Amino acid sequence: MITKALVLIIGLAAIGFILWWFFGKHTTATVTADGDADLQQLDVEVNGGYSPEQVVLKQGVPAVLNSRVRMRQVVWITSFSAILESTRNSTESNANGHD
To answer: Does this UniProt record's set of keywords contain Membrane (predicted)?
Structure first.
């Protein structure tokens, strides 16, 4: 009888953990990029996940995302640039026949 109760409790705890893991509310770090009207810069660390998890950028302003990847105590530092165009400008150019 004790074995059945113990198995039941462990099973319910495992189900509760799985529900929390997939459906629970977890806090996420949100960061706004630094920069001026010409360029935005942001550092992102990759170590089994992204830190910060959410990034806020201004539309239409070029952005540089610097990523630091950590795997088994080896660090790779990469940098890539992305031009972010506003949806409005993209929509206007498509409406005018430009791709």
So the answer is: yes
